[in-house]
Design a protein that fits this description.
By secondary structure, this protein is α+β, with helices and mostly antiparallel strands. The protein has two domains: about 50 residues, no CATH class; about 40 residues, no CATH class. The strands form three sheets. The chain has a three-stranded antiparallel β-sheet with strand order 2-1-3, with helices on one face. A two-stranded antiparallel sheet has the order 4-5. The protein has a two-stranded antiparallel sheet with strand order 6-7. Strand 6 and strand 7 form a beta hairpin. The chain is globular, with a radius of gyration of 23 Å. Bound molecules: zinc ion (ZN). Zinc ion binds next to loops. Zinc ion (ZN) binds next to loops.
């Protein structure tokens, strides 16, 4: 009689298998302007309302030089820029980020680790 070498049957864990987001219950689309001026619609999908994930998307977009592409009238745009605090170093309007206003001027191409260095001014 030959010895049985087949591995014992593993119970199939069908309940724990994550679905590949077929119908994401939560999705959010943001319109952004690329550094070259293209308008993109970026959609984030998640199984639940994921604000932290959205903030991470914002951070990555801003880090890549993308800007919010809001469809506002010129007057509203001017008003928004007028209300933005100015960077005392660069005398430029700051941008609104996750932690408040920040200056988006790049002051050095490399901080020693390959990442660009941005103005540290915040408001
Ligand atoms: Zn600055």
């Amino acid at each position: 009689m030959a010895a049985q070498t087949a591995a014992p049957q593993q119970p199939t864990a069908t309940t724990a298998t994550p679905a590949p987001l077929p119908e994401a219950p939560f999705s959010a689309t943001v319109r952004v302007r690329s550094p070259r001026g293209f308008i993109w619609l970026v959609t984030a999908r998640s199984l639940s309302v994921n604000v932290t994930g959205l903030e991470a998307v914002e951070e990555r977009l801003l880090a890549a030089g993308f800007e919010p592409a809001e469809e506002r009238s010129a007057a509203q745009v001017a008003q928004g820029e007028a209300s933005a605090p100015m960077c005392p170093t660069h005398n430029k309007p700051m941008k609104r980020g996750r932690r408040g206003w920040f200056c988006s001027v790049q002051v050095a191409p490399d901080d020693g680790t390959g990442k660009p260095v941005y103005c540290k001014c915040t408001a």
